[in-house]
Amino acid sequence: MLKKGLSCLALALWLILPQLVVAAPIRIKDLVEFDGVRSNDLVGYGLVVGLNGTGDGLRNAPFTEEIMSNILERLGVNVAGEQFRPKNVAAVFVTASLPPFARAGGQIDVTVSAIGDAGSLLGGTLIMTPLNAADGQIYAVAQGTVIAGGASAEGDAATIIQGVPTSGVIPSGARVEREVDFQLSSLTSLRLALRSPDFTTAGRIEDAINREFGRRVAEMLDSGTVRLDITKTRMASPAHALGRIENIRVQPELKAVVVVDQRSGTIVMGNDVRISRVAVSQGNLTLRIEEAPIVVQPNPFAEGQTVVVPRTNAAIQEEPGIGLAEIDEGTSLSEVVAGLNALGVSPRDMIDILKSIKAAGALHAEFVVR
Q1: Which residues, 6 or more positions from 220, have their beta carbon under 8 angstroms from its beta carbon?
Q2: Which residue(s) pair with 258 in the sheet?
């Protein structure tokens, strides 16, 4: 009953899907990235303290002892030559993303991840950690209490872990100390980079911007770039020009793509996917082999040995599948999938059928397998 209900649900989704994937007008800010207006990745190496016996084993993670010694020496505590084995500290990598136009004194979120053999970061506190960018400069400093997203419990003979307690976040855990040297106000032109390059979409963005200003201020350079001439917009600054065009709505052009996930059996497709005339035949063949050995013993007081006689049961079963079916020219893939669902074809078999149709050259779309 459950299988039948799922099949009906899948059939309903496939029938509705072509109506859902029709492109609707989208804001330009959701279709492009503005040149120079981007975030920057930061990374640092630090120490989490205050753990409840779940820190690094310093014998297996000597780098933890080294950084702890350096921190104590900077605080005026001389530990040279000392032997200490605390279990409440863990070495971690700290990562963050510096948003565009972040100013000194602002706060950003950070992610903390253990790099040693620490069992959990629950309840720990990150000690002041500088965060560097790709140029080697320090742009932020992180510190605060780690909020881990998992839980762990351990006994004498068993251990249970839920989630990932060796990774956590610190909301607003880093303070910006250096600003990125980028002056938007000094630009005379700006490029708009499409997240999904397409000549038709780029042309529509160009036309929409030019209609908004009533003059030719935008020019399509290629399928992924539209250049905006700031001087021709007659706006007070580039920021004012971007604020005016980012909410202009454009209908993007969707590519014909089929994406399948073999692990979960998920199939996602666009509305413009088409199939040429092709014939399909599919069936399932099951081979079953069972070993059932028999032990044979001699009669009482008789001479002989106990032996094991092999017994093997082998059977081949062919489950009913799809007979020879013919697909007409120009049929949409959504119609084909809806028909396969109506016949009770499983998602795994459907993926195999789509692969075969693509291999035959009858599926006219980009085929992505994950």
Answers
A1: 199, 202, 203, 205, 206, 226
A2: 269, 367
Provide the residue type at 82 as one letter. Answer: E
- Where does residue 205 fall: left (phi above 0), alpha (psi -120 to 50 degrees), or beta otherwise? alpha
- Angle between helical axes of 333-342 and 2-20 (0-180°, round to 10): 170
Residues 31-84 pLDDT 10s: 999 988 888 999 999 889 888 888 777 666 677 777 777 777 777 777 665 666
* CA distances (Å), origin 330, targets 17, 48, 158, 273: 18, 61, 60, 9
3-state class (DSSP) for residue 172: strand
Domain ranges of the chain: 2-21+256-284+323-369, 40-176, 183-250
CA distance 298 to 294: 13
pTM of structure: 0.67
> Strand runs (DSSP E) across 230-299, as ranges?
249-250, 257-261, 266-269, 274-275, 278-291, 294-296
